[in-house]
Design goal:
With 219 residues, this protein is an alpha/beta fold. The strands form 2 sheets. A 5-stranded parallel beta sheet has the order 2-3-1-4-8, sandwiched between helices. It is globular and about 40 Å long.
Length: 219
């Protein structure tokens, strides 16, 4: 029996999924899995699979389903039932991945899945990504509104090579070709909100959407 709500944060690269995940970690009881961070952890380990991932991510491509599915399923299975809300940030990216997610634990996971989609204009996405910084220690993402020099965990903030504009454009193209159709697959479990505006404006929209999903703020 799965007692956790699986919340998928959906949207183009740079739509604000990482920022919303951080907001939720600070205000809700959640367990957050960023697929990007999980993959980068493999890259950092210099494992054979990590070297393959590094080459793909460096050109803005999408990592193969077989690799991503295995990593995600392993982490969800580890915490399912022990956390009230599990956030998936960056997964699923394709219909095939979505079907695999629905099948985890013999299909018990399916009824627990909800999707929050952030809708942001492409030009805003490119601008955001070119200005964002990422903590090299914990993976938290910070945008131009965050006037800080280091992460709260003490890690240094860096700009990633895959955040260069040419790579971002390739990632957006891949997103619309392979990932956007996933929204149709989840249409009965999805709420779409605008990801544009100030952090407080977006947070307010997120709170309203989560309330509709039955997810309550930490008291």
């Amino acid at each position: 029996m799965i007692n956790s709500i699986i919340l998928i944060l959906f949207g183009a690269p740079g739509a604000g999924k990482g920022t919303i995940a951080q907001y939720m970690k600070e205000n809700y009881e959640v367990c957050h899995f960023s697929t990007g961070n999980l993959l980068r952890s493999e890259v950092k380990s210099k494992s054979s699979i990590g070297l393959k991932i590094e080459k793909i991510m460096g050109t803005g491509g999408l990592v193969g389903d077989d690799i991503v599915n295995e990593i995600v399923e392993e982490n969800i299975s580890r915490v399912a039932g022990s956390s009230s809300v599990i956030i998936l940030d960056g997964y699923p990216r394709t219909k095939d991945q979505a079907k695999v997610l629905d099948s985890i634990k013999n299909g018990e996971l399916r009824d627990s899945i909800r999707v929050l989609e952030l809708d942001v204009d492409d030009d805003i996405v490119v601008s955001r990504i070119s200005q964002r910084r990422v903590c090299e220690k914990c993976g938290n993402t910070y945008g131009p509104h965050d006037k800080i020099e280091a992460c709260s965990c003490g890690g240094a903030l860096i700009r990633r090579k895959d955040d260069e504009e040419s790579v971002v454009r390739n990632r957006l193209k891949a997103y619309y070709e392979a990932t956007q159709p996933v929204a149709d697959y989840y249409k009965d479990r999805l709420i779409r909100i605008s990801g544009d505006g100030t952090p407080s404006e977006v947070a307010s929209r997120v709170d309203e959407a989560l309330s509709r999903f039955g997810i309550k703020k930490r008291r």
